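B., you asked whether I could sanity-check this one before it goes into the benchmark set. Here's the sequence:
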Amino acid sequence: MIKLKKGVLISALSCLGVTCLLCILGIFGVAIFSGVGLRILLIFASLTVALSASLSDINIFEKNKKIAIASLSLLGISLVFALIIFCSKLLDEVHIFNKITAILSVFSIMFMMIVSLYTKLENKFRVLQAITYIVVLLVDILISLLIAGVNVLSVKGMTEIFGVLCVVAVGLLIATAVVSTKKENATESGETQGFIRVKKVEYENLIKENKALKEEIAMLRSEKK
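And here's what the prediction gave me:
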């Protein structure tokens, strides 16, 4: 798992470097923001986002394999769909496949963020988590409707509501991330003071093994007598 994390991290940083380099070349007049150059830029940008997001799923793989696999699958499907668009004529067209891909990509990123935060906080700060996830979900729904072609912003006051939801969502995500980081630091502090976290199953197995060893030692002592 450690080797996989390093490989994904190196790949993400490499794609990020190429993406930045292409953008710099485009600023200096190289044909990057149109034609084949734009396709290459979008491919590397998509790889950067997907690989970076997958690092979070890989980190939670040991805690919850099913959720991690589901999140990685969504990211993988979104990436494949995006690459199909960038490598075909679909990029120059307004096609329903493009809309589906965009909606799926937004949902994948949202799902990854929620899974990452929930895995770190678990059952702590439930109210904060619930409010954060609801607001993020509302933003995702509105964005998906806009991508699908539904002009929800034409409704009176909806533009202001959408803007407020976006600001609140960002604020809540930052607050939740800070709280989760604080929780991790507190856990690490406890471990350095002589405490370690052990799963209940592992703890019970240790007790059984300890009991079995004691019985074996007792039998050996009785045989010697």
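One thing to flag: Residues 1-104 form one domain. Otherwise nothing jumped out at me.
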